[in-house]
Structures are given as C-alpha cells and as structure tokens.
Design brief:
The protein is α/β, with parallel strands linked by helices. It has helices spanning 19-29, 51-60, 78-84, 99-108, 155-167, 185-190, 200-203, 209-217; strands at 6-9, 34-39, 65-70, 88-92, 112-117, 135-139, 173-177, 195-198. The protein has an eight-stranded parallel sheet. Helix 1 packs parallel to helix 8 (209-217) and helix 2 (51-60) runs parallel beside helix 3. The structure holds zinc ion (ZN). Zinc ion is lined by residues 10, 35, 37, 68, 177, 197.
Amino acid sequence: MPLKYLLAPSILSADFTRLGEQIAECEVAGADWIHVDVMDGHFVPNLTMGPFIVEACRRATQLPLDVHLMVESPERLLEAFAKAGASHLTVHVETCPNLERTLQEIKALGCAAGVTLNPDTPVEAIEPVLPMVDLVLVLTVHPGYSSQVFLPETTPKVAALRRMLDSIGSPARLEVDGGISAQTLPEVREAGANAFVAAHAVFDYPEGIAAGIKALLEQLD
Ligand code: ZN
C-alpha cells in the first residue's frame, strides 16, 4: 500500500509575532509535520532560525518537527537541534564531507535522518546513502528564500529518486521543498513525491492558513 501523503508547512513564511498560534492553526487544519528552514548566512545568504525557535515550536505542537539544515558543517549543530526537539534532521550533501557518518550521528541522537541536494547537484551524489536514510528532500527552488517560483526542471529528479528508492525497497519519505502550491503540487506528486513542504502557499494564502492548507490537501486526496 502506498504511503499516505504528508503536508509540512514551513514556518519560514509565518508571522513570528504569532508563531505558536499559527502552528496551532496548521495542526488543526490538517498539517502532518512542521518544517523548519534553518539558514546560516554562509551556505545560503539568508540567516533564519536556530535551536531556540525549534524549542519554541516543540512547545507549540505535538506534530513532528521536520528540520532542514541549510548550514555549513551541520554536524556541529545536530545535538543542539535534537535537544531542542527536532524529530527529523535533514542535511545537504554539499555540506557533508562524510555524509554517511553525519547521517549515523543523526540516528544516534534519536532523530529521523534526511538527506537533501540543491537543484544543481545530480541525484547520483546521494545514491550511496539512500539505503540508510529515512527521508530524501528534493529542493525544487534554489535554497535561501521563501516565495520563490517552482523550478520544473527539478521534477525529473523527483522521478529519478522515486525509481532509486523503489528499486532498493526503501520506505523513505520523498519530500519536495520550494514553490509548492496547489498548482505545482500535482506535478511532483505524479513524479513520486509523498511529502510536501509549503510556506508561502500556507502562511500567505489570501483567505488564511486553514484555507491554504485545505487547497493543498485537496490535491492530495
Ligand atoms: Zn526546507
């Protein structure tokens, strides 16, 4: 039986003066995970949030916290994010000289281990670690900022990773992140993704968060 589709609102587009309230609204509206985009101002130009915010999210919801580390040398921060309450820690292949060891460290901390890659990085870069990961994240925009336009050239990557995961019988989640809306979601769903990050399409939806989530969930029925 295919895995259920999961929706993961990214708080990158949330109103931080009302963060707890907005996370609760996501939960009530049917979100499955809360996605946290961590940016360090080095690996990507933008600087966003650290373990303090993850800890605040942990107090605001029971949902799994899906933490995406867009940072140089992520291994130095894994323990702090795990202690703050992260459920999943996803690292970029571009930042991990010893990717296998970093993924083992994540598992040893009791978190689900995720790997991700930039739009310009070929899928072969992560192929060796696919048997050991719980989550594969495909960046469908260049990382760094919210409200970007989905890059259709990333869809074949989703399809390629779906084939690779199926060929090894992996139950790992295949997640997409960047420019996902009710309009772009069907394309990546058809390509084999089963977890969907959305920031702008949830938090900036004209009729509000609950309506934004509903519009996305309608594409997952
Ligand atoms: Zn992300």
